[in-house]
Design a protein that fits this description.
Elements: E1 24-25, E2 32-33, H1 52-60, H2 66-73, H3 81-110, H4 115-141, H5 149-157
Antiparallel strand pairs: 1-2
Bound molecules: zinc ion.
Length: about 160
Amino acid sequence: MDGESFRPPNNPASAPINATPATVGCPHCAAQMAPKAAFCPACGWSMTPVPPLERAVAAAGYLPLIPAAVILFLPTYRRHLFVRFHAWQSIFLWIVFLSLTVVAMLLSNLAASSLMAFLLLGILASLGMLFLWFVLSLKAWQGERFALPFFGVLAARMR
Ligand SMILES: [Zn+2]
């Protein structure tokens, strides 16, 4: 010993050998998740690319009720959770919107004096639904598992 500290030989085996990380980051919102996660738990981003056909089908599923119902019955999409999620979300959304429309129409018949108010509300609700429809179709087309607060929770429970 001459005072100099002993340097261990540069051993390549001591370098980190963990090639697979414990978690992976979402490219969309940077949330961490298990490497094998199919979707980001935070924002719903698809971690495996969704093929264009399935994205188109999922987007078309937001047309009122019939396309989504057809998608859910088609054996082709029985195992495509991405497509089915959007189809279910579409169905729940349209059922609630159409039910509210019917209720509003009945109420406006009863209270004919406030017809203008109902008309105005109806126009606002329709515009809101149009906007929602546009956003949801776009998100589906982008391959995102975009979940609405209430409808998304319901849709996630369906298969
Ligand atoms: Zn995310």
